[in-house]
Amino acid sequence: MSNFMKLRNLRSSVHQKKESESGYSSRSSSLSEISKSKNFEENDAYANSSCKNEKHEEKIVNIDGDKVQNLTEEIKTIKLEHTNFQIELEDNESDDAADLLGNLVRLIDSQPSSSSDDDSTDILCRTNENEKGVKRRWKHQSASFCEKKKSKNVETSSEEYQNSGVIDEVIEDIWYVSVMQIENNPVVRFLVKWDGFPPSENTYEPYEHVSDTEVLKEFVNKKFELHEDKIKAAQKKLLQDKKKHYKFYLGKSKKFVEGKTIKAEFDPLEFRCNILAYIYTYEKILSTSEFMKKLYYQNILYTFYEKKIAQEEKNREFVKLVLRKESNKFKLSVENRIDYETVPNFKYLSKVKSISEILSKFGCKCKDSCIKSSKCCPNQKDLKMVYDSDGRICSSTHQMIIECNKLCQCSELCPNRPQSITASLAIFKSSDRGWGLKAKSDIPAGTFVIEYTGELISESEARSRTKCYSKSGVTYLFDLDYNELGKAYYSIDATYEGNLSRFINHSCNGNLQTWPAISCNEDPKMHRLYYFALRFIRAGEELTVDYFGGVKVTAPPTKNSIECKCGSANCRGFIF
């Protein structure tokens, strides 16, 4: 195996350049080679003008790894003539490179040095395997560190690394990206400007050498903004060329597509680099190449990746909106493992949109809590208190809840006051019933879960909207019919305006129960609707309610009946 070494005098004013045999990945690739490439025409003028003022004396020595001893005289000569020089080693195998490096350290340390304020020698080593294009400098005083570095299966502590005099050579800028022919194989290469080095030291680097840098992300973002139209046109063309393959993925589930993405170790940043290289490169050299096969496949996956990012961003904005409206009193998330649909659009209402009709101005005069009081709001309506001291339903009798109001003198912590959402919730997409709502934390039996909100509409308006909604088979109308006659004078419609309760699906064996609620000053015909936990609900369980309120249905389904897919043991087979 051969190793490439370069001995460079950093202080000389004479420039002598020789070409290296190590190929495009070598640190010694000359800028003259780069500027001659048709792929870098837009940087040619700048690159050549920048090189004229930079001069260095370089001496290149090609040796085999087992002939290191032959360098002794060469090193001695250079150290006598110059006070500061460095040796650069490039190798394809890190262990061999470390072995050679260790030998060089011992050779240099054994040579006499000329008198100087700084007679240290920098030994630069980069391997393609693990350095990712960032070179490391070991000062020759740290020979013990180099010795340990070369040993196999021996880790170096961070403290030893810091004390060794190691300096990272960072990438200052990326000038260009294109596809280049190397051994008749098109590969992507980046023209890299190294920090602290003149443009004449620019190198071609593969993606693996620059992928972890912020410089690359900035370069790609800037180019994507500059060439947005070209990139979109290129992506569209690539999809058209592989239309059949794209349709195949369109017909698959999100889980299948993301599984392929993970299996292929899809890297969005790599694709963005590749598509840039594609639009910068003469198309003829790309046809039928392995690069194009990979690009076609990446382009299809990237299309779905963009959908996923857009979906996640929109859902995040929705969650922020909801939590802001609800004063951040609970946790909320959105889950969709089925497809790339986002949460349906609707206007969020934390309370029912209506004109409240105040019938009286009564307020209780209870101290602290109304639980044990005989003169609280429910008593004014000859009804019982339904809450316990924790604010959970404790009544075995289903009745109208009479809550305290703003005129009441009881504590704000009184359990008989209107409650808020406290359980952690998640909106999720199901495979057969659309969107739903589930618990993300345990919910004890009797706990208030959520209020059903929406537009409060009249009976006539509800009839009109019902005819319209029946055509789609989807309705969010909830009749307010809790009275002696069972007649709905008003309804709540959450089709266009509402809250998270609109996602609660029907089940013939629901885990939620609906309770009507009103204050003693309001019209009971306009009562509110509260959902309470009918039983203990475990985290991860879907929240469901029987749209018939638990009433036994004896009438057979009609041709307009909506099929029930709750899957419970006592499923009626239809919703209504």
UniProtKB/TrEMBL annotation:
<keyword id="KW-0479">Metal-binding</keyword>
<feature type="binding site">
    <location>
        <position position="364"/>
    </location>
    <ligand>
        <name>Zn(2+) 1</name>
    </ligand>
</feature>
<feature type="compositionally biased region" description="Low complexity">
    <location>
        <begin position="22"/>
        <end position="34"/>
    </location>
</feature>
<feature type="binding site">
    <location>
        <position position="410"/>
    </location>
    <ligand>
        <name>Zn(2+) 3</name>
    </ligand>
</feature>
<feature type="binding site">
    <location>
        <position position="364"/>
    </location>
    <ligand>
        <name>Zn(2+) 2</name>
    </ligand>
</feature>
<keyword id="KW-0489">Methyltransferase</keyword>
<feature type="binding site">
    <location>
        <position position="404"/>
    </location>
    <ligand>
        <name>Zn(2+) 3</name>
    </ligand>
</feature>
<feature type="binding site">
    <location>
        <position position="414"/>
    </location>
    <ligand>
        <name>Zn(2+) 3</name>
    </ligand>
</feature>
<keyword id="KW-0137">Centromere</keyword>
<feature type="binding site">
    <location>
        <position position="566"/>
    </location>
    <ligand>
        <name>Zn(2+) 4</name>
    </ligand>
</feature>
<keyword id="KW-0158">Chromosome</keyword>
<feature type="binding site">
    <location>
        <position position="366"/>
    </location>
    <ligand>
        <name>Zn(2+) 1</name>
    </ligand>
</feature>
<dbReference type="InterPro" id="IPR023780">
    <property type="entry name" value="Chromo_domain"/>
</dbReference>
<dbReference type="InterPro" id="IPR001214">
    <property type="entry name" value="SET_dom"/>
</dbReference>
<dbReference type="GO" id="GO:0000775">
    <property type="term" value="C:chromosome, centromeric region"/>
</dbReference>
<dbReference type="GO" id="GO:0008270">
    <property type="term" value="F:zinc ion binding"/>
</dbReference>
<keyword id="KW-0539">Nucleus</keyword>
<dbReference type="InterPro" id="IPR000953">
    <property type="entry name" value="Chromo/chromo_shadow_dom"/>
</dbReference>
<keyword id="KW-0949">S-adenosyl-L-methionine</keyword>
<protein>
    <recommendedName>
        <fullName>Histone-lysine N-methyltransferase</fullName>
        <ecNumber>2.1.1.355</ecNumber>
    </recommendedName>
</protein>
<keyword id="KW-0862">Zinc</keyword>
<feature type="binding site">
    <location>
        <position position="547"/>
    </location>
    <ligand>
        <name>S-adenosyl-L-methionine</name>
    </ligand>
</feature>
<keyword id="KW-0156">Chromatin regulator</keyword>
<feature type="region of interest" description="Disordered">
    <location>
        <begin position="1"/>
        <end position="57"/>
    </location>
</feature>
<dbReference type="InterPro" id="IPR016197">
    <property type="entry name" value="Chromo-like_dom_sf"/>
</dbReference>
<feature type="binding site">
    <location>
        <position position="408"/>
    </location>
    <ligand>
        <name>Zn(2+) 2</name>
    </ligand>
</feature>
<feature type="binding site">
    <location>
        <position position="565"/>
    </location>
    <ligand>
        <name>S-adenosyl-L-methionine</name>
    </ligand>
</feature>
<feature type="binding site">
    <location>
        <position position="564"/>
    </location>
    <ligand>
        <name>Zn(2+) 4</name>
    </ligand>
</feature>
<dbReference type="GO" id="GO:0032259">
    <property type="term" value="P:methylation"/>
</dbReference>
<feature type="binding site">
    <location>
        <position position="571"/>
    </location>
    <ligand>
        <name>Zn(2+) 4</name>
    </ligand>
</feature>
<feature type="binding site">
    <location>
        <position position="377"/>
    </location>
    <ligand>
        <name>Zn(2+) 2</name>
    </ligand>
</feature>
<feature type="binding site">
    <location>
        <position position="404"/>
    </location>
    <ligand>
        <name>Zn(2+) 2</name>
    </ligand>
</feature>
<dbReference type="Pfam" id="PF00385">
    <property type="entry name" value="Chromo"/>
</dbReference>
<dbReference type="InterPro" id="IPR011381">
    <property type="entry name" value="H3-K9_MeTrfase_SUV39H1/2-like"/>
</dbReference>
<dbReference type="InterPro" id="IPR003616">
    <property type="entry name" value="Post-SET_dom"/>
</dbReference>
<dbReference type="InterPro" id="IPR046341">
    <property type="entry name" value="SET_dom_sf"/>
</dbReference>
<feature type="binding site">
    <location>
        <begin position="505"/>
        <end position="506"/>
    </location>
    <ligand>
        <name>S-adenosyl-L-methionine</name>
    </ligand>
</feature>
<feature type="domain" description="Pre-SET">
    <location>
        <begin position="362"/>
        <end position="417"/>
    </location>
</feature>
<dbReference type="GO" id="GO:0140949">
    <property type="term" value="F:histone H3K9 trimethyltransferase activity"/>
</dbReference>
<dbReference type="InterPro" id="IPR050973">
    <property type="entry name" value="H3K9_Histone-Lys_N-MTase"/>
</dbReference>
<keyword id="KW-0808">Transferase</keyword>
<dbReference type="InterPro" id="IPR007728">
    <property type="entry name" value="Pre-SET_dom"/>
</dbReference>
